[in-house]
Design goal:
alpha/beta, Rossmann fold, 3 domains, five-stranded parallel sheet, 8 helices, 15% strand
């Protein structure tokens, strides 16, 4: 399994099933996509901004829901294997990405595993065990997450630095060398430990010090 990132901006994600798992999937994909959740009831508390449609589709009716919503991704999250089977079959027939929440382990072509994710600004780190151990993915996220606090600021600062170096007409190899020096600097990483609004200015000062050493 090869990890890839997919931009769901402007896309529709169809979630069939409204329990705890369906709600979690709706919240996750709702960060980018328009999410439609189809279920006979919605016992969970939080579905984000998803469009909730109260219905109990039979396996024969699943194709109609794909026709109505035209999803980029379908999530099979019911407790009925026959309905989940139908979601999988229709997704494959239509070439739609599929996340089947009731299965783990080996996956077929077109299947999507939703990883544990750490986000800090534009930095996204995803952890997956291929569906074999979600508990381990969550634990790894907990252990790694605290070490990455503030890296979003570092990404923003180094992005600005790259543009600044281009404007100064530094050749590509020099730009790469300077940026590598910045992201490898212990002083810069120490700046990430500063809490509150002073973090960015501390990082910028550390980056400037590295820049002076290399220009």
């Amino acid at each position: 399994m090869i990890p890839l990132y997919h931009d769901f901006e402007g896309e529709i994600v169809l979630v069939v099933g409204g329990g705890t798992v369906g709600a979690r999937k709706a919240r996750r994909f709702g960060r980018e996509a328009e999410v439609v959740v189809v279920a006979p009831n919605f016992p969970a508390d939080d579905y984000g901004d998803a469009d909730l449609v109260r219905a109990a589709p039979t396996p024969a009716e699943i194709d109609g829901w794909f026709e109505r919503t035209e999803p980029a991704l379908a999530v099979a999250a019911t407790d009925e294997a026959a309905v989940n089977d139908a979601v999988e079959r229709v997704a494959r027939e239509r070439g739609v990405l599929l996340n089947r929440a009731d299965r783990s382990g080996g996956r077929e072509f077109g299947s999507v595993v939703v990883p544990a994710t750490i986000r800090d600004g534009d930095v996204v780190v995803s952890i997956s065990t291929g569906g074999a151990s979600p508990a381990l993915s969550k634990e790894l996220r907990r252990r790694i997450g605290s070490k990455l606090d503030g890296v979003g600021h570092l990404a923003a600062v180094t992005g600005e630095l790259r543009e600044e170096l281009k404007e100064r007409d530094h050749p590509p190899e020099t730009r790469r060398e300077i940026v590598r020096a910045v992201v490898g600097s212990e002083r810069v990483w120490k700046g990430l430990e500063v809490a509150g609004p002073k973090r960015r200015s501390t990082i910028e000062a550390a980056v400037e010090a590295v820049l002076e050493e290399h220009t």
